[in-house]
Amino acid sequence: MSLKTPVTLYGAPPSLYSGKARSYLRKAGIDYIERLQCHPDYASRILPAIGRFVIPVLEHDQTIVQDTTEIIDYLEENGDAPIGVYPETPKQKIISLILEVFGDEGLLRPAMHYRWNFPEENDYFISMEFGRFMNPQADDDEARQLAGMPKAAMQKYLPGLGITEDTIPEIERTYEDLLAALDAHFLKHPYLLGGKPTIADFGLYGPMYAHLARDPKPEMLMKTTANRVWRWVERMTAPDLDKPEFSGLPDATVAGDAIPDTLKTVLKLVGRDHAPEVTALVDFVNGHLESGPEAGSPVITDATRRVLGRITIPVGDMEVPVGARHFTLWMLQRVHDAYDALGDNDKAEVDTLLEELGLEAYVHHRPSRRIKRVNYAEVWA
């Protein structure tokens, strides 16, 4: 099936995961119409189908796809000119999927901290953004009023993400480390793995664009301390490859399945700052699964909750309680499946690379059960 009619993306400008999907649509040259959640079609068709108020959602020819990763996979499979976001070579494929997990899950702390903990710089902008996607014609006063409830709801998530007065200095330090490493990488390469975007770029782009390059406080931090990262965000927002600084560079990933040294520096930070959370999450879930939830039962049985429970993770020298996000597990399965499909020699090369970078947990520390998505909800396999 080809995409002969425009697709509809239900999203919003300040939405992290909407940005990831929107970037793919632009890069793939797919005609699309974007609508806000306040559009009547969302209430009449989308909400009854998926059963929860969430974005982004893609609608095409009576098919409804929810979750950004599934949206990208749907478009890759059905589009007339897919980008080819998954590298075909083993090391680059595994690394790209790990970076997608890190972008989707590992950058939530800086994304949420820099959005919600700087009201003097951010509040007007955020109020206008949140108010307008509820009522696009709202004036400033109405937008502020409309934004009050969702702003308060989002701020309540901060402690569950491990964002507290004690952890904020470490969150800022590790994010600044990441910016510096990415800035050095984008001096040499337009995209994470060379001359074209992969799923790694789309994964990282979500938080880097919607929160960290649009909200006033982190936008200025990025522009003034890591300008090449800002340029990459700009590049990922453009419909073409947008790399005039790299004239003559092939529109392909780095040859020979190589991982650039500058990207290895970034990946070592991923291993330092996020891999321990992966380990703690898997350990917790394996303990949870000893109670034997039935196959097909909801992963989250209480509709008012978004996490399985509480885990403790290292943040700098501190041990910090955070929510156990099951969505991380679902994303990790993509890494596991790609690794399991490799031949023995390729697995050995990947293992050597993962050990060098401190990323073994993403492949080898696994839950005892899988998660499936059935009717837009996560259930135990």
In short:
By secondary structure, the protein is α+β, with helices and mostly antiparallel strands.
Question: In words, what does this structure look like?
Answer:
The chain is α+β, with helices and mostly antiparallel strands. It folds into four domains: 7-78, Glutaredoxin (3-Layer(aba) Sandwich); 96-118 and 159-269, Glutathione S-transferase Yfyf (Class Pi), Chain A, domain 2 (Up-down Bundle); 119-157, no CATH class; 273-380, no CATH class. The protein is built from 16 helices and eight strands. The chain has helices at residues 16-27, 40-50, 68-78, 90-106, 108-116, 119-134, 140-155, 168-188, 199-210, 216-225, 227-237, 261-273, 275-289, 326-340, 344-357, 361-364; strands spanning 7-10, 32-35, 57-60, 63-66, 310-315, 318-323, 371-374, 377-380. The strands form three sheets. Strands 2-1-3-4 form a four-stranded mixed β-sheet, sandwiched between helices. It has a two-stranded antiparallel sheet with strand order 5-6. A two-stranded antiparallel sheet has the order 7-8. Helix 4 (90-106) runs parallel beside helix 9 (199-210) and helix 8 packs across helix 11. The longest helix is centred in the middle third of the chain and has 21 residues, at 168-188. The protein is globular and about 60 Å long.
